[in-house]
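WARN retry 2 of 3 for item q-0093 after timeout on previous attempt; input resubmitted unchanged.
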Amino acid sequence: TDVMTSLDQALKDKIVSLPYKNNTNNDEVTLYSIYILDSNAIDIPLIRISTITSDINLESYATASFQFIDKTKQFTRECQIKIRGNSTSTYEKKPYKLRFNKAISLFGSNKYKNWVLLADYLDPSLIRNYTALSLENNSNYLSFHHTNKHVEVEIDGIYQGVYLLTDQVETNPSGRVNIEVTNLGSEQVPFLLERDKDGEGIYGVNYFTIGITNYIIKYPENPTPKQFNYIYDYVSSLYENITEGNLNEVKLHLNLNSLYEYVIINELMVNIDSNWKSGYLYKPLTGKLEFGPVWD
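OK item q-0093 returned
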């Protein structure tokens, strides 16, 4: 196109053309061009992690030094690090969870102790998770706001690649999933649920099953039997009203606007898991059930 021709002319000294050989007539044509730009033009912070106590693994945290470097500042903190994820933990490029002793702010966010480094191993473009989380940030009815920044990661002197640094989904009074984290002495409590194919903890204590989906209670962390029953009854009765088409009852207990936006984002990103797993739900103490945050 004219645009690409102009770009080729402007960047002709920074182009690597990859030839493609036609097997029929042995002709070579340029398949595409890679633009190698000056790295100083790209503002991607660097995170250097140096382990102190043990190798990084999936089961337990290793103590490490966390060094953050960008054009305007740098600092070093001690942190705990472990591999995170289910299927993603088996890939060559691992995702990680970071836990700091004291809450820290990254990229102007509120201060939190827990952070996530998404590897995006199956997405060579590195933009699908970024796009999905950005869509949620700009939605009208999904209230979770993600810190969403690409960083380069180096672990024990070995370059790991470009990661997406973002929030750990958790309840927190200063942001994140914004539900009350008090009033846990009563039967009716605010709650955060994770939908997944596998349970976590003890069935009937930490999670329950409706249809083919397991609902893991992420908050409260240790629900009493009465609190568990309240959460289960709320979700199961809503599920029953949805399947029976009782729209008025559904409207009383579910923020449908959050559902609409949640579905639209997952459809745009072709997230085939979102219909039955890999998702979150939460309910404030006095509000309706809300969909979100979206799953990475």
